[in-house]
């Protein structure tokens, strides 16, 4: 019996698909760009420290050492939202990567995005989790494995899923945001050291400036620094100054008022504190017992470089006597 074999069918060509997974260097650059955005937001929107949040960047697990302001927290929330619903932050768009679910290739959504961010704490332990993409088959960190996410090259992801190419204005916008953030992340600082400016009675002399019962008053200034980026300045030290009064024995008569004021270069008062002598001690404006050491908020001295004046005076029997004054930066 003769068996006739049909000619072999035409074989399909072997297609060499590109590796879809993002490399560690790309991920690091994207994270650094996003951290620059957070740093710029913390600088521009500084409104007082609120603590630190888990770090966004590949590193030691905690973000910028600068305390995050409320505005910077909002910026972090915006970055998380962009990643949750579009798969990419501005930094990721610049380097061309996207974070998606393994099962369907879609963005993670808000719940998994936040969980993945929290899981980066695992990656920060000895940096092992952040380095794991170097040997993992799908180049995953521990956080990626926790939520089953993949970080893919955006152009490969789009071609394999038949998605449209990223719009030019979206990519351009990401470059502009990241570029501006990088420029705003280069700080320059200046400042002055702490100083004490006392006005006191020499040993054996009479009362300070002839005011009975007052021996000394001093303004103590803490060290102050200011950071400048792209011509914009923010104070980085919020310590208060102090004004300390020293009374003699006997103290000034009851009803004597100790007044301390700070004014700007135009003579506008930016801070005023009044103490009233009562029974050998002092009371504040509400009549409560008070300390002779008073605090002056750091912002009373105005922007950097400072131009301000300080004056201490005593009001007795309706007559004001200046006992100390100091000017800074005028002229």
From TrEMBL:
It is a multi-pass membrane protein. Coiled coil: none annotated. The keyword Transmembrane applies. The keyword Transmembrane applies. Keywords: Cell membrane, Membrane, Transmembrane, Transmembrane helix. It holds the Pfam family RDD. It comes from the Bacteria. Transmembrane segments: none annotated. This is RDD domain-containing protein. It comes from Cellulomonas biazotea. The lineage of its organism: Bacteria, Bacillati, Actinomycetota, Actinomycetes, Micrococcales.
